[in-house]
């Protein structure tokens, strides 16, 4: 936003008056644009920790490990070869576990 430095500056009294008027206008605007939200509808979609998810199905497609990936023998996550830090007893270890 461009600033015109040649315009007269407002005093502190002018700024306070403007801000009070703006606050009143904002308060009136907020009261008219309130959305009525039903709390019970929001709670229906909430899943609690430890909830029974036995009827749920996964919709994620799992790919097998690729040729340029390895499984860390410390955290058992699949990483790209660029994350290989070292091999301990012939077992690959990722950078996160080696740190």
Summarize the structure.
This protein is of the alpha+beta class and 99 residues long. The chain contains three helices and four strands. The chain has helices at residues 12-32, 39-44, 95-98; strands at 69-71, 78-80, 84-88, 91-94.
What are the main properties of this structure?
99 residues, alpha+beta, elongated, DUF4193
Can you walk through the features of this model?
With 99 residues, this protein is α+β, with helices and mostly antiparallel strands. Helix content is 31%, strand content 15%. It is built from three helices and four strands, in the order ααββββα. It has helices at 12-32, 39-44, 95-98; strands spanning 69-71, 78-80, 84-88, 91-94. Strands 1-2 form a two-stranded antiparallel sheet. β3 and β4 (91-94) form a beta hairpin. The radius of gyration is 30 Å and the shape is elongated. The model has no long low-confidence stretch (mean pLDDT 80).
**Structural class assignment:** alpha+beta
**Silhouette:** elongated
Mean pLDDT: 80
- Rg of Cα set: 30 Å
Count the beta strands: 4
How far do the termini sit from each other? Answer: 47 Å
Biased composition (Basic and acidic residues): 1-13, 21-30
Protein name: dUTPase
Organism: Wenjunlia tyrosinilytica
Region (Disordered): 1-35
Topology overview:
Blueprint (H helix, E strand, L loop, with lengths): L11 H21 L6 H6 L24 E3 L6 E3 L3 E5 L2 E4 H4 L1
Antiparallel strand pairs: 1-2, 3-4
Pfam family, one: DUF4193
Protein name: dUTPase
InterPro entries: DUF4193
């Amino acid at each position: 936003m461009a600033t015109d430095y040649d315009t007269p500056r407002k005093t502190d009294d002018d700024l306070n008056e403007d801000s009070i008027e703006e606050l009143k206008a904002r308060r009136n605007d907020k009261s008219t644009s309130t959305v009525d939200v039903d709390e019970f509808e929001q709670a229906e979609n909430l899943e609690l920790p430890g909830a029974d998810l036995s009827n749920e199905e996964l919709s994620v497609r799992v790919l097998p490990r690729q040729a340029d990936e390895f499984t860390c023998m410390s955290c058992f996550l699949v990483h790209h070869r660029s994350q290989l830090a070292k091999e301990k007893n012939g077992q690959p270890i990722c950078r996160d576990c080696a740190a």
